[in-house]
Structure formats: structure tokens, C-alpha cells
């Protein structure tokens, strides 16, 4: 914060807004009367103090962060504490300058500064000498130990998403694994994408009597999940885009023989396909032949760059209606099994637990309870990010908040400093999470992806995460045991 701004803030805090406004009016009148050789306007414009004061006044009257839509007393207290620590007003605790929040700085500027300091790390070995020039090749070559893609190589991702949403499809096959209907699409350049079809129109909520595993996924949640991961500065989700598939051309004509055999015209005259899977594989129909869905860029070939598949998530939910998982019934689960588990150093040291917490925050924002396993690129060992894919169970209910999704944060009472800084910034404004996500998603060909009430819910959820963190700090009476600066962002 600039020093005139600090002075303005200090005076305002001491004597109150009204008094300062009154004094300012008197000062303006005096300037006007005493010296009329220059206009009052010019004189006022010169004053740094005046400018700082007006900026603060504008923010006081119309905050636009998440807080403007949903404020929580405890989140406000955390915001104040955060800023006080940044200003050096709290003994023995400090926040590195990189994470200080300027009032007027917009979120994207703040995020970009943060990201520019992120470690790059080594790239995937299997692609180092790849000379292919497709957008997929360029993307694979940029995957590093610390991120799936680099935001400053934006053109790669933009070009890639354009290709995924427009390139001719030359083959479509059923994709096994998991419980939802999926197709593996191959494009005319041999590259691949994972297609998830629309199961619900945008306005349909998850039925209240459904468990999370009863529900279909939403293609819009896959697209929004990618954008949300991106605007939160994680860059750990495979680029995903909306696409309208032609059931005749892309599925019937270019389908594998298995797909062709399972394509039919419904009594309503629509071209449909069916497949048998574990849970949700009923019939997918075009209207009459067009079908919208999401396509995620397929990750690198697994033989070249293996991923640790099927590592059980410590907060995995149970596929049962009547039994609870251990973590659901034992609030000491994190302390006992993860944080202080001497038999399992995976969670007691390194970045893993904080990555699980980042993912829990992402899942709380979307309402996605569907985390059974986690995956990462094996060649980077434990010092690498978790891949944020499979976001399709999100955005089912805007009115409710998935508090069980937040269990890792509530129980472990930890958060990465960089993640906290982003959330506090979004809470403070001038931008809110709903707004930055809306802006990001306008680039998708199927925009609008989310209806407004889902965007508004995100602003509420930012406040709830901060409230949870504030409770942790109060409960443990220690900032530094809760807010961890491990240097990752
Ligand atoms: N973009 C991708 N590139 C490569 N592999 C992927 C991609 N997306 C998903 N996968 C792989 O396919 C598996 C199944 O995908 P996904 O989890 O999205 O399916 P699902 O049917 O929703 O599964 P579930 O029933 O567990 O929710 C993932 O665990 C992952 O290993
Ligand atoms: Mn899924």
C-alpha cells in the first residue's frame, strides 16, 4: 500500500469516515476561497492523499469481491488479520511481500505475479525430444513437475482447445473405466480427447434423494472444473472444452464396430447410442443427431509418461448408502492417520497433504464428492501436483454447500499460503470468484456454461472456506500451524 493511502487509512480509522469527509469538504472550500488562480479541480487532482482517500471511500461504499455478495464475520476477521500481518502489525508472524494484497490490484494481476514466481521444474522425459508440431505435442512438451500447463504459454492452450473443439473426428470408441458414459475421440491428426455427453440441461439440479454416486455427471461441470482450476492458479486440470458432436458423422460413421452396433434410431426419431457399464450407461441420444458434451484433452501416452493410477484418496467416500467412511465419523482422522502418522511419512512430510487440501477446496467450490483415487505423474516422484481430472460430479446444487467435501480442511486445519492468499484476495475484491470464472468461461463455444446461481454460490463458498480457516487459527491459537508457506503455488 502506498504511504498516502496508509495515512488516509490511519486517519480514517482514528476519527471515522464522516469526520474525515467533513474535514475534506472544509479543506476544499478553503483552497477554493484562498487561491482562485487555479481551479479547485486541478489542485485536488494533485493531491496523492486525496486520491488515496477517494479510492478507499469508493471501496468502502461498493466492495465488489465475494464479500460484497456474501460476507461472514469470521471471514472478515481473517481478512483483517491477513492484512495486519502483511503490514507488520502482528508480532512474530510475517507474510512474504509476494503475497501482500493491494486493495486496488485486480485478481488477475495478483495471480499473474504469483505464477511468474512459480518454480518450473523438469519436463516429462518421454516428450523432451518430441519433434511433433501439433498442439497436443506442444502441450505435452510443456507439462512440468509443478504444473500441467503454463499460463504464460497461453497460446498453446488456446490453440489446443480450438483444435479439440473443431478438428474433424476420425474415430470414436467407448472408453471403459469409471462409472460414466465416455467416448474416446481421435482427431484427424491422430491426437485424442475424452468426450462426456450432456446428461442434464443446465437448469436441472441433483435430486435431493440421490447419493453422489446415483447421479449422472455434468458435461458443464467438466468444462467449469477446468476453468475454475485455472482461475485459482492451480493449472492441474486437463484443458477441457465444449463441443457439439454429430451422431451420424462422428459416432455412427466413424465409430468402432462396437459403437456402430450399438447405435439406433429412437422412437422419437433421434439417433442414439447405448453401452453397458457399471452404473450409468443408459442411452445417449442426439437431438435429432446433434449432441453437446465436454472434451478433455487426453493426457500423454501412459507408457511414455506413466501416472500413478488407483492410489486411494485418504478422504475417499464409500459407495454405500448406509455406511460411513472412517473420516466421516472420526473428527481426529486427519491428526491420527495423516498428519501425525509415524508409519506413513507420505503425509507427514512433503506437499501431498496440502495438495489434497487444494483439491478439497476445488471440490468444495464445485460440490464434487467423487474423489476415490488420486493420480500424479510417477517420474516426478512425490514432489509433484495431483492431476485435477474428473470434475463431472460438480455443480449439481447451487443452494447447498458440500460440507463433507471440506472435511480435509476442517480436520487437518491446514492451508497452503498461496491458496489462502488467492482466496483472501477474491474475498476482498475488487473481483469475485464468480466474476472471474464467468469471464474465463465466455471463451467456451458452449457458453454460458454455468447459470448465475452457481456463480453466486462460489462467492458464498469462498467466505465459508475463510470462515473455516479462521476457526482453525482461533482453535489452535497459531497462524503458523495452519497457514503453511511451502513455496508451491
Ligand atoms: N483427460 C484425460 N486423459 C487421460 N486419461 C484420463 C483423462 N480423464 C480421465 N482419464 C482417465 O480415465 C479414468 C476415468 O475417467 P473419469 O474418472 O473421468 O471417468 P468416470 O466415469 O467419471 O469415473 P468415476 O466413475 O470414477 O467418476 C480416470 O481415472 C483417468 O485415469
Ligand atoms: Mn467421474
UniProtKB/TrEMBL annotation:
Main location, first listed in the record: Golgi
Single GO MF descriptor: phosphotransferase activity, alcohol group as acceptor
Residue ranges of every copy of the FAM20 C-terminal domain listed in the record: 264-478
UniProt entry tagged with the keyword Flavoprotein: no
GO CC terms, sorted: Golgi apparatus
Chain sites annotated for binding ATP: 180, 196, 217, 296-299, 375, 390
List of catalytic residues: 370
Keywords associated with the record: ATP-binding, Disulfide bond, Glycoprotein, Golgi apparatus, Manganese, Metal-binding, Nucleotide-binding
Membrane-crossing segments per the record: none
Intracellular or extracellular location(s): Golgi apparatus
One Pfam assignment: Fam20C
Residues bound to Mn(2+): 217, 390
Cofactor(s) named in the record: Mn(2+)
Entry-linked PANTHER family: DENTIN MATRIX PROTEIN 4 PROTEIN FAM20 (PTHR12450), EXTRACELLULAR SERINE_THREONINE PROTEIN CG31145 (PTHR12450:SF22)
Similarity comment: family membership: Belongs to the FAM20 family.
UniProt-recorded name of the protein: FAM20 C-terminal domain-containing protein
Source organism per UniProt: Lymnaea stagnalis (Great pond snail)
Amino acid at each position: 500500500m502506498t504511504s498516502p493511502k496508509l495515512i488516509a487509512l490511519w486517519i480514517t480509522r482514528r476519527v471515522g469516515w464522516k469526520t474525515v469527509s467533513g474535514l475534506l469538504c472544509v479543506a476544499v472550500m478553503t483552497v477554493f476561497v484562498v487561491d482562485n488562480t487555479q481551479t479547485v479541480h486541478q489542485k485536488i487532482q494533485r493531491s496523492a492523499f486525496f486520491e488515496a482517500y477517494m479510492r478507499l471511500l469508493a471501496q468502502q461504499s461498493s466492495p465488489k469481491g465475494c464479500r460484497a455478495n456474501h460476507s461472514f464475520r469470521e471471514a472478515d476477521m481473517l481478512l483483517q488479520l491477513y492484512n495486519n500481518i502483511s503490514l507488520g502489525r502482528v508480532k512474530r508472524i510475517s507474510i512474504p511481500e509476494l503475497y501482500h494484497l493491494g486493495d486496488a490490484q485486480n485478481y488477475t494481476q495478483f495471480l499473474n505475479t504469483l505464477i511468474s514466481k512459480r518454480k518450473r521444474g523438469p519436463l516429462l522425459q518421454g516428450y523432451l525430444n518430441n519433434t511433433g508440431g501439433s498442439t497436443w505435442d506442444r502441450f505435452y512438451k510443456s507439462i512440468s513437475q509443478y504444473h500441467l500447463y503454463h499460463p504464460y504459454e497461453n497460446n498453446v492452450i488456446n490453440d489446443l482447445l480450438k483444435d479439440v473443439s473443431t478438428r474433424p473426428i476420425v474415430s470414436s470408441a467407448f472408453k471403459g473405466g469409471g462409472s460414466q458414459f465416455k467416448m474416446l475421440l481421435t482427431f484427424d491428426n491422430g491426437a485424442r480427447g475424452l468426450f462426456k455427453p450432456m446428461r442434464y440441461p443446465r437448469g436441472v439440479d441433483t435430486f435431493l434423494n440421490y447419493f453422489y454416486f446415483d447421479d449422472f455427471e455434468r458435461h458443464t461441470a467438466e468444462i467449469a472444473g477446468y476453468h475454475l482450476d485455472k482461475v485459482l492458479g492451480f493449472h492441474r486440470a486437463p484443458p477441457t472444452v465444449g463441443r457439439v458432436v454429430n451422431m451420424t458423422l462422428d459416432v455412427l460413421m466413424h465409430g468402432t464396430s462396437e459403437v456402430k452396433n450399438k447405435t439406433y434410431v429412437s422412437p422419437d426419431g433421434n439417433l442414439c447410442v447405448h453401452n453397458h457399464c457399471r452404473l450409468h450407461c443408459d442411452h445417449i441420444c442426439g437431438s435429432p443427431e446433434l449432441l453437446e458434451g465436454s472434451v478433455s484433452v487426453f493426457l500423454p501416452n501412459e507408457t511414455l509418461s506413466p501416472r500413478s493410477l488407483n492410489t486411494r484418496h485418504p478422504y475417499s467416500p464409500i459407495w454405500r448408502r448406509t455406511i460411513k467412511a472412517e473420516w466421516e465419523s472420526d473428527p481426529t482422522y486427519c491428526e491420527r492417520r495423516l498428519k501425525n502418522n509415524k508409519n506413513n511419512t507420505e503425509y507427514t512430510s512433503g506437499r501431498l497433504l496440502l495438495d489434497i487440501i487444494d483439491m478439497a477446496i476445488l471440490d468444495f467450490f464445485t460440490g464434487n464428492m467423487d474423489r476415490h483415487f488420486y493420480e500424479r505423474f510417477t517420474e516426478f516422484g512425490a514432489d509433484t501436483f495431483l492431476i485435477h481430472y474428473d470434475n463431472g460430479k460438480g455443480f449439481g446444487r447451487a443452494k447447498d454447500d458440500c460440507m463433507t467435501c471440506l472435511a480435509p480442511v476442517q480436520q487437518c486445519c491446514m492451508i497452503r499460503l498461496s491458496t489462502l492468499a488467492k482466496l483472501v484476495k477474491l474475498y476482498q475484491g475488487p473481483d469475485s470468484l464468480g466474476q472471474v470464472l464467468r469471464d474465463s468461461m465466455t471463451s467456451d463455444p458452449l457458453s454460458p456454461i454455468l447459470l448465475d446461481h452457481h456463480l453466486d454460490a462460489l462467492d458464498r463458498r469462498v467466505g465459508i472456506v475463510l470462515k473455516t480457516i479462521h476457526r482453525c487459527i482461533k482453535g489452535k491459537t497459531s497462524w503458523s500451524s495452519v497457514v503453511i508457506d511451502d513455496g508451491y503455488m
